[in-house]
Here is the input.
Amino acid sequence: MKKLFKIIGLALATVLFLAVCAAAFVQVRGIPNYDPPKLPAQKVAITPERVLQGEKIAMSMCADCHLDKKTGGLTGRHVDDLPAEFGKLYSANITQHPEMGIGNWTDEELIGLFRTGIGRDGRFRVVMPTFVHMADEDIYSIVAFLRSDNPLVRPQAVASHPQEPSFLAKALTHTVMKPTPLPTKPISVPPATDQVKLGRYLVTARYLCYDCHSQDFKTNNIMEPEKSGGYLGGGNRFVTKTGQTILSRNLTPDPETGIGDWSEQQFVQAVKYGQSPTGPLQAPMPKFSVISDEEAKAMYAYLKTIPAIKNATPEDGAAANPVASR
Here is the structure.
């Protein structure tokens, strides 16, 4: 019996030693670097249509984190709506400045970053969403906007702030938060005639609604969004500028705690103008005022088809309950 206890003790000590070594490795290494993505050299044609579409996507998906009101440009800032458990994380300067921004990045380097989250220096952008499922034309439109003469992207000599990740953030980048692979085939925007399919594309690929509105960033599944924990059932935690913690809203068709009792027009008003049937939506929920009514209606059509989850949030006038499938 003593021999058995000795063996168990040695095994536990070994496991503890390995865990300590792993923790030390993660702490020292920090956020890992990778080989930069390799794409064929290409030059995105800058057309008025692409610039306009790219501006719409950038204002919906990039400006909220990259726009610094002090500089009036996409010069980056502290991403202050993330929970403190991730540390202090910062968005980068994505103006056309050749040294401090992305002015001397090639088009394929930008596309590789958008697709994988890995920059041309091999650094993984941990707080940046990756657009692995976004249509090629939408990706090209973002590049065209960044190359345009829009005041938001004009060169500004503002240095990007180094990241200050917590141990948890470092550990997550070694486990569940990983770069995404480059697509293996062309991706197109679904036709407007297929409202549900277009809505799914907007929710999971272009505007990434599921990323904030599922249960937790740590359990989101980038490659298969529908397999994210509590898919679109809300409950993900955010911090307001006043330090208040709020939860993302349930977007599933549950009639009591989701949007099952919302009309199409009520949903459009909420997405575009921040006015829900129960009152104004709280920050950091952005107002997608630049998207079309047709896009918002397509999102609504898709959301009405997903499995309902009963998960009340304070905006419903109830205390938050554990996320559970209905």
